[in-house]
Amino acid sequence: MSPQIEHPMRLQNFRCAYGASLLAVCLVTASPMAAGQTPASVEPLAIAADDAPALPYDAGALRLLVPSARTGGAYALVELIEQPPYRTPAHVHPQLDESFYVLEGALALEMDGIAYRLPAGSYVDIPRGTVHSQGSADGQPVRLLTRLSPGGFEQFFLDRVELARSIGRDHHDFQQRMMEIVRRYPQWLGPAPPAEE
Asked: What is the CATH number of domain 51-189?
């Protein structure tokens, strides 16, 4: 039986199985559904480990497991391997829900002012508009299965892969070029609002 993940105003079926020779087999709904609706079409999706190579980027490495083009834009699935001391600045996703399943290592997460230490096997759902930041909790790499819904924001990570091919984080132009990438995605990524006094 498929677990159902409820979000305000929508309901979507999502089921994945994992195995040694196959990274993931997922059944997905082509687009988000309103409560009470049934999926119009569900397409099986199998991604072999070799079909999603690791791509280095400024925070570590990533694997684009399921691009949003394969889900009708409903979501994208990305494996992130964040290397210490990388930690995201506090930020929000105005029109994006994000979730993490910790595969290896421990995730340090601050969400809405509350600090969490999430070891392997932990899950977190970050609804759109929620202030958060994350990185390794213990100085070791942390590997995350990241779901972005709706899809499209995976391009932000692919742009960072391209940036990492040309310059590193320690290059004097890195911050300026990284901010150029951030500005391409205002609907999906923004700074945390100023703290209330």
From this structure: 2.60.120.10
